[in-house]
């Protein structure tokens, strides 16, 4: 269920919750790219959890975060292994 991004050499793979939990325990950074509003409704707790929105909600609709790559680069090193969360809606107990 994965694909390879040939331009960057980064492997993109879809994984389930159990695999995610295991990777978090082995040093991965959990990058949640949902909007601030979505993140504030509920998110994973942990040591290496970062919320950097890819999109912002505005009165005109959603717009891309123009500083997204700069913000990610400010928090993550090139050699870091990332789990990127792109789910738009989560239900928490």
Automatic annotation (TrEMBL):
Stored InterPro entries: Rhodanese-like_dom, Rhodanese-like_dom_sf, STR17/STR18/HARC1-like
SUPFAM superfamilies: Rhodanese/Cell cycle control phosphatase
Domain Rhodanese as annotated: residue spans: 24-85
A molecular function (GO) term: catalytic activity
Protein name: THIOSULFATE SULFURTRANSFERASE 18
Species, as recorded: Salix koriyanagi
